[in-house]
Amino acid sequence: MSRASLQQQEMGLGPAWQPRAGWFEQHPAQLLRQSPQTDAAPAEPPVLAISASPSESRPPHRAELTAPPEAPQIAAQAPAPASSIPEPVESTPTAEPLRTEAGAEPAPVDWPLLQRKVADCHDCRLCETRTQTVFGRGNPQARWMLIGEAPGENEDRQGLPFVGRAGQLLDNMLSAAGLDRDRDVYIANVLKCRPPGNRNPAPDEIAACNGYLLQQIRHIQPTLIIALGRFAAQTLLETEDSIGRLRGKVHRYQGVPLVVSYHPAYLLRNQPDKAKAWQDLLLARKIFRQAES
Ligand code: URA
């Protein structure tokens, strides 16, 4: 058995896949499109009423409840053969660029100051319900950056991203790919505060938090970004495309190669898709090696 097969077996990966329908209408970009933002707090997106596994009392993380809106195209999602890395799909977010002008160096980001700003942030309503902010975790000099959605209950309590079951799965996958979560990667979220009840992030919350993430990326200057789940992918790429459409390609965010994968919390509930997440990781590793060489 090959090393990759052994690793996949170790992670409990299966070959099948099982798409489900249904979350697209709640995406912030879609909501923004439907109703222009005002100063008033928008109606809270519904919390899906699916219970967590019996062993858990916490509300399920939203990513555990959601699934791609359409059946992913298997052919389009197959990892690139060794000889052909997918062409980067250029995306042009309107957010503040990493480089302010052509050729100009980005303004240096004072990391401790940024951490303090996040810790003291009162820019949206989530400051009222959070226990604490969740800035990020890992090595700020890492070449890999992983971006998730928002803290859940455990993260809110501990002040660190991906510390629950989803985090354990993520750690296992990173480790199977030869990456140490503390040394080789930096992990942050689109939102730094937990949405109450693990509801979906609201458009104005994403907008309020976006600058922090941009500054984190600007400071870290990763060689490669992995967007975990649809909120991260759709926010960074400013698209409403489904995960199914975004996976298996190399996008660019501010010039940095970006690969989209499933959210680990989603994978906990949709085990067969772990195999595809593993393929995403292999694609990311290949792009990374190419970018570093
Ligand atoms: N899900 C996320 O997207 N981020 C976390 O930190 C935890 C769960």
From TrEMBL:
<dbReference type="Pfam" id="PF03167">
    <property type="entry name" value="UDG"/>
</dbReference>
<protein>
    <recommendedName>
        <fullName>Type-4 uracil-DNA glycosylase</fullName>
        <ecNumber>3.2.2.27</ecNumber>
    </recommendedName>
</protein>
<comment type="similarity">
    <text>Belongs to the uracil-DNA glycosylase (UDG) superfamily. Type 4 (UDGa) family.</text>
</comment>
<keyword id="KW-0378">Hydrolase</keyword>
<keyword id="KW-0004">4Fe-4S</keyword>
<keyword id="KW-0227">DNA damage</keyword>
<dbReference type="InterPro" id="IPR036895">
    <property type="entry name" value="Uracil-DNA_glycosylase-like_sf"/>
</dbReference>
<keyword id="KW-0411">Iron-sulfur</keyword>
<feature type="compositionally biased region" description="Low complexity">
    <location>
        <begin position="72"/>
        <end position="88"/>
    </location>
</feature>
<keyword id="KW-0479">Metal-binding</keyword>
<keyword id="KW-0326">Glycosidase</keyword>
<keyword id="KW-0408">Iron</keyword>
<dbReference type="InterPro" id="IPR005273">
    <property type="entry name" value="Ura-DNA_glyco_family4"/>
</dbReference>
<feature type="compositionally biased region" description="Polar residues">
    <location>
        <begin position="1"/>
        <end position="10"/>
    </location>
</feature>
<dbReference type="InterPro" id="IPR005122">
    <property type="entry name" value="Uracil-DNA_glycosylase-like"/>
</dbReference>
<feature type="region of interest" description="Disordered">
    <location>
        <begin position="1"/>
        <end position="111"/>
    </location>
</feature>
<feature type="domain" description="Uracil-DNA glycosylase-like">
    <location>
        <begin position="135"/>
        <end position="282"/>
    </location>
</feature>
<dbReference type="InterPro" id="IPR051536">
    <property type="entry name" value="UDG_Type-4/5"/>
</dbReference>
<dbReference type="GO" id="GO:0004844">
    <property type="term" value="F:uracil DNA N-glycosylase activity"/>
</dbReference>
<keyword id="KW-0234">DNA repair</keyword>
